[in-house]
Amino acid sequence: DAGVTQSPTHLIKTRGQQVTLRCSPKSGHDTVSWYQQALGQGPQFIFQYYEEEERQRGNFPDRFSGHQFPNYSSELNVNALLLGDSALYLCASSLGQGGIEQYFGPGTRLTVT
Amino acid sequence: AQSVAQPEDQVNVAEGNPLTVKCTYSVSGNPYLFWYVQYPNRGLQFLLKYITGDNLVKGSYGFEAEFNKSQTSFHLKKPSALVSDSALYFCAVRDMRGNTGKLIFGQGTTLQVKP
């Protein structure tokens, strides 16, 4: 049973650049949520995608955008990168928009220099 | 505002001793509560959840948690700690304002189990 997968594992970008992170949900799941975990902090909710639409958004600027594909995989895009965007980005999948159990991927470590 | 607090940045216990990692929450209505564990350079692994029913919830790897509504707490416990339990532990509550399963996490507690 394939769990949640994310790519790439690590990424180094320069301020002002754009980045795309990818997530494939656990087999059978149709909903993807993205979280940002800054160093020494708990994960913060960015947004959730269900039926290819953004369903809820956390307190993140419009530089953060996403997409969900028909196969339920998802992308997180961040434009005009800031140093403060350096973090571990976690993808979580669940069954249904209000699915109780969320399964997390290993994360993508983004470093902005 | 809905929130989760983990009052201890770090908990140190000796192997074989019982451990407790504390969590308190603030949420309107009946809470959905979760514990996750994170090992270095890894994602979050689900340990257990409380939705309704028995206040003592049993989870993975011998962990359990006690829901206390009057104290708005959901402390994580284990009767006998293992060195391999050393990791970062997060308590989370579901945001009940939307129907998306959004989780609100605490700051995390580092558990150090010494041989």
What does this protein look like?
The complex is a heterodimer of chains A (113) and B (115). By secondary structure, chain A is an all-beta fold. Helix content of chain A is 0%, strand content 50%. Chain A contains no helices and 11 strands. In chain A, strands 2, 4, 5, 6, 9, 10 and 11 form a 7-stranded mixed β-sheet that branches. Chain A has a 4-stranded antiparallel β-sheet with strand order 1-3-8-7, with no helix packed on it. In chain A, a hairpin with an 8-residue loop joins strand 9 (87-94) and strand 10. The radius of gyration of chain A is 13 Å and the shape is globular. The mean pLDDT of chain A is 95. By secondary structure, chain B is an all-beta fold. Helices cover 0% and strands 50% of the residues of chain B. In chain B, strands 2, 5, 6, 10, 11 and 12 form a 6-stranded mixed β-sheet that branches. In chain B, strands 3-9-8-7 form a 4-stranded antiparallel β-sheet, with no helix packed on it. Chain B is globular, with a radius of gyration of 14 Å. Chain B starts with a strand and ends with a strand. Classes of the chains: A mainly beta (113), B mainly beta (115).
Please report the distance between the alpha carbons of the first and last residues of chain A.
37 Å
- The pLDDT mean of chain B sits at 94
Largest interface between protein chains, with number of residues from each side: A-B, 31 and 26 residues
Structural class of chain A: mainly beta
Key attributes of the depicted protein:
heterodimer; A: 113 residues; mainly beta; seven-stranded mixed sheet; 11 strands; 0% helix; B: 115 residues; six-stranded mixed sheet; four-stranded antiparallel sheet; globular
Secondary structure layout plus pairing:
The complex is a heterodimer of chains A (113) and B (115).
Chain A lengths: L4 E3 L2 E4 L5 E6 L6 E7 L6 E7 L2 E5 L6 E5 L5 E5 L8 E8 L8 E2 L3 E5 L1
Parallel strand pairs in A: 2-11
Antiparallel strand pairs in A: 1-3, 3-8, 4-5, 4-9, 5-6, 7-8, 9-10, 9-11
Chain B lengths: L2 E3 L4 E5 L4 E3 L2 E3 L6 E6 L5 E7 L5 E3 L5 E5 L4 E6 L8 E8 L8 E3 L3 E6 L1
Parallel strand pairs in B: 2-12
Antiparallel strand pairs in B: 1-4, 3-9, 5-6, 5-10, 7-8, 8-9, 10-11, 10-12
